[in-house]
Each structure stands twice: as C-alpha cells, then as structure tokens.
Specification:
The chain has helices at about 10-20, 40-45, 90-105, 120-130; strands spanning about 1-5, 50-55, 60-70, 75-80, 110-115, 130-140, 145-155. With about 160 residues, the chain is α+β, with helices and mostly antiparallel strands. The protein has a 7-stranded mixed beta sheet, with helices on both faces. The longest helix is centred in the middle third of the chain and has 15 residues, at about 90-105.
Length: about 160
C-alpha cells in the first residue's frame, strides 16, 4: 500500500536505501548525498513536494519522492527504490504511476531524474516507461565518486 512518508519513517527509509546501495558495494552518505533523508518534511513537503512509501506487511519495501522545480517547469523524481525481493512485482510501476498522477495534477508536463550509472535495471525500467536517457555527470558528494545519467519524460496533452 502506498502512503505518505513522515519524518519518523526516515530511519527505516535510510536502512532500505543503504541495503540497496550495499548491492553495489556502497553505502548511504547522510553527511551529503543522502542528507535529504534526515528531514523529509523540510526537504520534500516544505518545498512543495511529496514523499511516498510502499508498505508491505508493515515494512517499507519501496520509496519514491517528487520535488517541483517551477523555474524549469518540471518535477524532479527522487528516491525511487524497491527492496530486492519485491522487484518485478509491480511496486515500482505503482510508485511511478503515483508520481505521474501527482505531476499531472500539479500541471507539470515533465518529470526528470538523475540515476547512478550502476542502477542498470532501473534504467531499463525508466526507458520502458517512456523516459529518455540524456547526459552523464560526475558526482563527488559521497564516500567515493560516482556518475549519474539524466532521464526525462515529457507528457503531451
């Protein structure tokens, strides 16, 4: 079930994302790259965005968030993660549909995101659902440097 995240969910969200990062021999960096996770209200809701979690058997198995960027006339999709044993079950698609519906209700016509180049299955998912891969950038906001791909999806009327 998809519900809104609240600040008390932060610890469980961080644990979920850290578990996923460990699949890539990495870890969450709360001092920089993932510092937004320590205060969901401040970093999402107070910026006009929203953060959803997917609960299964009372545990968080998936997350996704969006933050509007009125100057660029788009919504940034952030924190799309699904616990390994729940991938391929339709949870990611439900989360993406929730983001898309919210985006269109807010009258935005574009969703954009940056995704670590190591998350190949995620990239296949985004492409399958109409996102176009763009440029690549180098990032230095974690324990080790990494690269990210830009993706965007434009909605036509």
């Amino acid at each position: 079930m998809i519900v809104l995240a609240q600040n008390p969910d932060s610890a469980e969200i961080i644990t979920l994302i850290d578990t996923i990062y460990k699949e890539y021999n990495d870890r969450v960096c709360l001092e920089d790259a993932e510092s937004d996770l320590t205060d969901l209200s401040e970093n999402y809701f107070n910026k006009g965005g929203i953060f959803w979690i997917y609960r299964e058997l009372d545990i968080i198995v998936g997350t996704v968030a969006v933050v509007p960027d009125p100057k660029k006339q788009l919504v940034w999709l952030k924190r799309m993660y699904v616990k390994k044993e729940f991938r391929g079950t339709g949870i990611a698609l439900e989360l993406l549909k929730t983001c898309t519906q919210w985006t269109l209700q807010q009258e935005y016509k574009k969703i954009a995101l940056w995704s670590d180049t190591r998350f190949e299955s995620g990239h296949k998912f985004y492409k399958k659902h109409g996102f176009i891969k763009g440029e690549i950038r180098e990032m230095f906001d974690s324990y080790v440097p990494y690269k990210e791909y830009y993706f965007e999806k434009i909605f036509t009327s």
